[in-house]
Amino acid sequence: MKVLFFDCGMGVAGDMLTSALLGLFEDPQEQVNKLNALQIPGISFQIESKKSQGIAGLHTSVTYHGESEGNTSSHSHISMEKIRSILNSLKVPELVRTDITAIYNDIAVAESKAHGRSVDEIHLHELGAMDAIADITAAVFLLHDLHPDLIISSPVCVGHGTVKTAHGILPVPAPATANLLEGIPCFAGDTAGEMCTPTGAALLRHYVHQFSPMPVMTIDHHSYGLGTKEFENRLNAVHAILGELHPDVIELSCNVDDMTPESVAYALDQLMQEGALDAGWVSVGMKKGRPGIRIDLLCRPEDRDRFVNLMFRHTTTIGLRETVCTREILSRSAGVAETAWGPIRYKLSEGHGVRRLKAEYDDLASIANRQNIPLDVVRQEFEKTSK
């Protein structure tokens, strides 16, 4: 399984993600040429090798009609209608355009929520808006080219203190960024300033399957995407690691509040018959105070796609969570114990200093009924015989 891991312990921004992704290719400049060939209106990409704290990495700069964000006196604004027109005109595959549009829409919704206005009322600073379009387009384009099976990110460093924006001095994380980070594990760290931008947060929100420390994986390629700022004794970079993951199992989970108990039982039975390693349910509290059910399933990695389809087929969920798991199991074997009342099948589990012998319930119950004796008496006879 091809896995892409982002270490965002020093924050994340769109240009940092783009730079980190470019470094995973054999020829980063060739990828930059492809990005410029997309002809995003007024946008030009450039890449340079750079060092931060003695560590070599890549830095991507984006200019809009020759100006870069932060180095302009322009105060021009652009409407969401104009942005949608630009997105619809991009010369990219339709799947790429769909992701770009969804990510930019997340940013627009976060901004509208922060300012208490509808999305269509939002007018963004033109240079910043075009810079975001460029960063999102580049990252999406490169991710589709890399096509990892699984994307994992560390918890995100957001920084602390305040940041100067076009709307004045705002707390870190800025309101729009905080909206995009909802549900994502993050921390302040010990560096003052804005460490996570809305674009970086939106890209992670859209693509990352799991936020956790780096899993056990074989590294094929890795790269550092360097940011613009320099911090004392701190590397300002996103570290991207591409490699192979060999998980023991995949866990698929979903929450439902509109399935009957009979339907849940049937779904679990079907999933087990299809070869799930395990399947079960627990009661959960859901939105609007509704009681619901969480359905959990374990399967082998090679069966993942099939069980995703089966979960959607046999449950009413419209979304699944996926977690890569490792597991420790006891060795298992089966046997038959001869007792005065007849044979009793059993399962033996051993390992990690543990030895467990479990009689087959159906055999115990059959003997208890036939001999008209309590079930526990039969179990005790089995345990005595099998010692």
Question: Please, could you describe this protein's structure?
Answer:
- The model has no long low-confidence stretch (mean pLDDT 90).
- The chain is α+β, with helices and mostly antiparallel strands and 387 residues long.
- A hairpin with a 2-residue loop joins strand 18 and strand 19.
- Helix 4 crosses helix 5 and helix 10 crosses helix 11.
Features:
alpha+beta, 11 helices, 32% strand, 387 residues, elongated, four-stranded antiparallel sheet, five-stranded mixed sheet
Give the topology, please.
Elements: E1 2-7, H1 14-22, H2 28-37, E2 43-52, E3 55-64, E4 77-79, H3 80-89, H4 94-115, E5 123-125, H5 126-146, E6 150-153, E7 156-157, E8 162-165, E9 168-171, H6 175-180, E10 186-187, H7 198-207, E11 210-211, E12 217-226, E13 237-245, E14 249-256, H8 261-273, E15 278-285, E16 291-299, H9 304-314, E17 321-325, E18 331-339, E19 342-351, E20 354-359, H10 361-371, H11 375-385
Parallel strand pairs: 1-6, 6-11, 7-10
Antiparallel strand pairs: 1-13, 2-3, 4-5, 8-9, 12-13, 14-16, 14-17, 15-16, 18-19, 19-20
The shape is elongated
Tally of alpha and pi helices: 11
Biggest sheet statistics = 5 strands, mixed
Roughly what is the average pLDDT, rounded to an integer? 90
**Class derived from helix and strand content:** alpha+beta
User: Radius of gyration from the CA trace?
Assistant: 27 Å
* Euclidean distance between termini CA atoms: 44 Å
- What amount of the residues lies in strands? 25-35%
The stretches of 5 or more residues where confidence is low (pLDDT under 50) are none
Number of DSSP-assigned strands: 20
